[in-house]
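ARCHIVE CARD
CATEGORY: sequence design from structure
SOURCE FIELD: tokenized fold
FIELD CONTENT:
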């Protein structure tokens, strides 16, 4: 029996990028282009160039499916066009069809298009209606977008209670941007342990600022005992996204760590070679 809800529809919190790519490859190998495209899109959102390129290579075949009426294919094709800034009104029309059929991703992406006036006349009020519908159907990114708009008063009146409600929903669904904001809010209230846990959830899904905050908290013992291994781990992990902002801090910490500790941090971060460089630089 197949899944009632395809697993790619749920935000893959904490799933490594390489695993997302492998899921896409497996789906593509079995001829399931919709699942493949969505797994690659998940990887792309996490900063994977390989995910972006693999999605683009599927585009001609996805266009055939879209022409045949496949609604999920229409959403994927629209996403590819939006990414490149090509045929924007056509991309919006594809999303309209999907949204009218209550495809969750279609509603969310059409909301994004309407909010920004991308190839269409801006309509932030309708964008929020679409975000709400998608969020009520379980889409975390739609919940986060709705929360932000309640905070800003964009397309709606400012409403902190609604902001907090939808932000919490997005965070509970693992959306890294929401988890990071919840971490900030807990920190302001002095809830350092809770704050760290939210930052770690964001960090596990490739949110670089949260990685760096978590690293500093492990280094300084804020909301947790001092743990140089975890600190260096999270100072090195942003390298996954081409960000070296934690390198100087990692070098400084490594000077007082054991060889075993540094190598463990490298293993946990997936940057074994960089950990060896830290050892040589001591």
């Amino acid at each position: 029996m197949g899944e009632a809800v395809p697993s790619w529809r749920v935000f893959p919190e904490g799933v490594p990028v390489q695993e997302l790519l492998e899921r896409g490859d497996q789906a593509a190998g079995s001829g399931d282009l919709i699942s493949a495209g969505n797994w690659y899109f998940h990887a792309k959102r996490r900063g994977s160039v390989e995910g972006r390129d693999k999605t683009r290579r599927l585009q001609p075949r996805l266009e055939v499916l879209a022409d045949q009426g496949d609604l999920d294919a229409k959403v994927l094709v629209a996403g590819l066009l939006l990414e490149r800034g090509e045929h924007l009104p056509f991309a919006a029309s594809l999303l309209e069809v999907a949204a009218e059929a209550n495809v969750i991703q279609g509603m969310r992406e059409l909301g994004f298009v309407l909010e920004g006036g991308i190839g269409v006349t801006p309509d932030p009020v309708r964008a929020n209606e679409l975000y709400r519908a998608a969020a009520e159907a379980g889409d975390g990114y739609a919940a986060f977008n709705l929360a932000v708009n309640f905070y800003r008063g964009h397309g709606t009146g400012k409403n902190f209670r609604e902001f907090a409600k939808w932000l919490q929903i997005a965070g509970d669904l693992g959306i890294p941007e929401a988890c990071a904001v919840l971490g900030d809010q807990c920190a302001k209230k002095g809830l350092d342990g809770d704050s760290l846990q939210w930052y770690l959830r964001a960090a596990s899904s490739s949110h670089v600022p949260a990685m760096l905050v978590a690293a500093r908290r492990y280094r300084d013992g804020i909301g947790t005992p001092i743990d140089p291994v975890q600190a260096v781990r999270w100072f090195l992990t942003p390298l996954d996204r081409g960000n070296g902002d934690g390198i100087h801090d990692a070098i400084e910490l490594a000077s007082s760590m054991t060889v075993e500790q540094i190598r463990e941090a490298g293993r946990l971060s997936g940057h074994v070679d960089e950990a060896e460089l830290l050892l040589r630089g001591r």
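CARD ANNOTATION: The domain at 7-135 is CATH 1.25.40 (Serine Threonine Protein Phosphatase 5, Tetratricopeptide repeat). The two ends are 56 Å apart (CA to CA).
SHELF: design records, drawer C
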